[in-house]
Amino acid sequence: xxxxxxxxxxxxxxxxxxxxxxxxCWSALIAAALLCSATLGGAQQQTGAPxxxxxxxxxxxxxxxxxxxxxxxxxxxxxxxxxxxxETDKKRGFDTKACESCHGPGxxxxxxxxxxDIRNPLKLRPAEADKACxxxxxxxxxxxxxxxxxxxxxxxxxxxxxxxxxxxxxxLVARKAVEINQLCTQCHADVWASFQRPYKHxxxxxxxxxxxxxxxxxxxxxxxxxxxxxxxxGCFKCHGDKAGPFVFEHPPVRLEGCAACHEPHGSANPRMLxxxxxxxxxxxxxxxxxxxxxxxxANLGSTPPAIHDLRSPRFQNCTNCHQKVHGSNVSxxxxx
Length: 336
Ligand code: HEC
Ligand code: HEC
Ligand code: HEC
Ligand code: HEC
Ligand code: HEC
Ligand code: HEC
Ligand code: HEC
Ligand code: HEC
Ligand code: HEC
Ligand code: HEC
Prior knowledge:
This protein has helices spanning 8-11, 26-45, 64-70, 72-78, 84-88, 99-103, 107-112, 126-137, 150-153, 158-161, 177-185, 189-194, 235-238, 251-255, 278-286, 318-321, and strands at 227-228, 232-233, 300-301, 308-309. By secondary structure, it is mostly helical. Among the domains are: 8-36 and 55-119, no CATH class; 244-321, no CATH class. It has a two-stranded antiparallel ribbon. Strands 3-4 form a two-stranded parallel sheet. The structure holds heme C (10 copies). One heme C binds at residues 62, 66-67, 69-71, 99-100, 103, 106, 109-110, 113-115, 118, 120, 123. One heme C (HEC) binds next to helix 13.
């Protein structure tokens, strides 16, 4: 026999998760109510007709204790998980039924013990799985809710990087540099290969990790580059002396970014430069300076009195004279 549900939200399996962190969306609730009353009406009209088969009944919440009976290990481990807060904190809307906050109402599954009757985020399409997480994790200050990241756009779901039921290494959140690097390089082996080059940040030694420079949840900068301070690239967190502001800027530092001259993932060249010789880095942009014809004070060229006689070794190491290549407060020509 079909009994009217105690709570409308229990009927509509897709709705309740939303209640966890947000005020109810009334239009959705009303739409659901209409839908549900339509179903109810249908059921009432059918009096006399054979009762619908029991598995047409929508699943309802049974509480975490019920899950414990068969999933003891997971239940026990869950007591130490940060998500246990969902079990105890009434504000989140899933107290005493935290398991079902991600898995959906479990009554059917508890009866049938069939995998088909319970939601497993790992088996959902990434966008669907992310929706389950973002019902609670949207709009957090940590950028977690940013679904602009290329990971979200490229079908890399939250659960690809966060294993809900694992604790310890590579558990819910990888925190140690070594663990994070392992996680990222599962998919970015080519990037890891760069870090094996002679001049690189010390990731292979475990002294730094990918998230020192990238936020895997996305940022508003290209390539999910971390930000520090007022929306500055994360490099400045550690290389603050390069941040300026300088009286005399070297435009590419700010406009094109550090990667205009450096290979941040590692390089065969000293100082992680993009070229094996400093002058070649500079000449990529400065080769088209006018060749001097007296009396103009032009600079690059091979004909005296050009002050930059590139045939002379003296001029080949540009940074011997232009020492403040990242910007200067005293010299327009970046000498000091
Ligand atoms: C009566 C025992 C029983 C109860 C109660 C029970 N389960 Fe299960 N559960 C099982 C069994 C058995 C399987 C393995 C099914 C299979 O692999 O076909 C399973 C599998 C699962 C899976 C994996 C499904 C998949 O796609 O691989 C999830 C998730 C799950 N249960 C969650 C829950 C939650 C949440 C609860 C509480 C609401 C719960 N279970 C209550 C017996 C139970
Ligand atoms: C925060 C979301 C979330 C909560 C809360 C949660 N689970 Fe899960 N569960 C998942 C995800 C995601 C997976 C897929 C495997 C993974 O990522 O660890 C999963 C997998 C499972 C599986 C399948 C395990 C396997 O090895 O295939 C079972 C069983 C299960 N959960 C039961 C539970 C029980 C019981 C609880 C409550 C004590 C619970 N879950 C709470 C998200 C959650
Ligand atoms: C019902 C609400 C809810 C849902 C759904 C949910 N979470 Fe959480 N999550 C929480 C709460 C509460 C915490 C505890 C930390 C806090 O205070 O915010 C948390 C913490 C976390 C943490 C951080 C733990 C730490 O150590 O900082 C991660 C990672 C996380 N959740 C991932 C996920 C993923 C992935 C999913 C989807 C499979 C998910 N969550 C679904 C409520 C939820
Ligand atoms: C590409 C891997 C990856 C993906 C995809 C990913 N995360 Fe994370 N997440 C991480 C890493 C690594 C950290 C630890 C960051 C740190 O320590 O700075 C983290 C941290 C977190 C935290 C803890 C926040 C904090 O700063 O303490 C939460 C919550 C979280 N993630 C939720 C999510 C949710 C929800 C999604 C899906 C929308 C998601 N993550 C997708 C890798 C990922
Ligand atoms: C499950 C596979 C997977 C894991 C794990 C993973 N990524 Fe990715 N990542 C991708 C895919 C797919 C793309 C998009 C295609 C591409 O650019 O290669 C991507 C793109 C990126 C990009 C380029 C972003 C952009 O906007 O162009 C960065 C940066 C990145 N990942 C960093 C990380 C970091 C840091 C981690 C570890 C916390 C990580 N990834 C873990 C699969 C993964
Ligand atoms: C020292 C800072 C730094 C570290 C550490 C770092 N990256 Fe990057 N990464 C960058 C910068 C800067 C770019 C953008 C380069 C550009 O604009 O050409 C980038 C670009 C990327 C891209 C985009 C495609 C590409 O190859 O250029 C991916 C993917 C990526 N990083 C993944 C990773 C992974 C995975 C790790 C950890 C193993 C990592 N990064 C560590 C700074 C860093
Ligand atoms: C978490 C701190 C940190 C961040 C973030 C960081 N670096 Fe570094 N960087 C270092 C340290 C420490 C060194 C010293 C070299 C070592 O570790 O062996 C270094 C060295 C360098 C060097 C080479 C210096 C030399 O003398 O050979 C360059 C170039 C460099 N970083 C560029 C960058 C760029 C570009 C970024 C951003 C994309 C960046 N760094 C982000 C910590 C950081
Ligand atoms: C126009 C090219 C260019 C750009 C852009 C640039 N660098 Fe450099 N950087 C160099 C050169 C050339 C050297 C080597 C200087 C030398 O040989 O004396 C260097 C050296 C360094 C060093 C090691 C020596 C030192 O002064 O500490 C660090 C660290 C560094 N750069 C970080 C950065 C960071 C961070 C950025 C982005 C904010 C950046 N660079 C942008 C050209 C550049
Ligand atoms: C990615 C392009 C690029 C690279 C690489 C580059 N520069 Fe520049 N540089 C510029 C631009 C653009 C200006 C501004 C030109 C202007 O104002 O007319 C500039 C300005 C300068 C100036 C100041 C010129 C003036 O106005 O007095 C000096 C000196 C200089 N660069 C030296 C170097 C040296 C040395 C290197 C190599 C370490 C280098 N640059 C690498 C683009 C670059
Ligand atoms: C021996 C010292 C010395 C070396 C080495 C040197 N320069 Fe200069 N450079 C100067 C002097 C001096 C000026 C200033 C000329 C002036 O202001 O009239 C200058 C000016 C410049 C300017 C500004 C041009 C303009 O239009 O105002 C650029 C760009 C420049 N140098 C690039 C380079 C590059 C690239 C290299 C390496 C190939 C290099 N310099 C090597 C001494 C040097």
